[in-house]
Amino acid sequence: MATSARVRRILDTFGEMFPDAHCELIHSNPFELTIAVLLSAQCTDEMVNKVTVDLFRKYKRPEDYIAVPLDELEQDIRRIGLFRNKAKNIQKLCHMLLESYDGEVPRQHDQLTTLPGVGRKTANVVVSNAFGVPAIAVDTHVERVSKRLGLANDEDSVLEVEKKLMRKIPKEEWTDTHHRLIFFGRYHCKAQSPRCEVCPLLEICKFGKGRMKAAKGRKNG
Asked: Which intervals hold domain HhH-GPD (predicted)?
């Protein structure tokens, strides 16, 4: 179990390692961010950014996305995983924005999650990055790092991880910590090749100590 002192050390270390961590999805307004996060499911931010460079030039408003045939939108995002389903959700989302929200992305979390293709994680990203509302979105990096560092249990669901992080981390630090967790997981504590040997949190990381001990055993063996 992570004590308050341990949590503080983890947060301070994240801050020292990645003081400028930020949302890496390129966007210029809440609508573009919502589309980008929807596209990012099971896809890298890097690939999404490659696709949205042209996508956001062609489509500026919800009206633009529904003015073209579905197969045209599919072709515009075909490099994205699950592009057919995502194209359908984008058009449904745009219809709903026009019908229910005057074409604007709603600011309320519960309203966002009613939009097609927008789940809890996507809504958290949008409210925190577009509207400045403190939130922690749990993606694969956040989940992995939280469990490895003992901020959550291995068997915890994504929602349980989110709730535990919200309890343990000061609310005013939620958004920054969300970005720093992602950077830590994406660039340091990677899924396949974590940099345990140079990690400043190794001594409090059960996963890392176990991995290094196993590596030492193989070397001595």
From this structure: 39-187
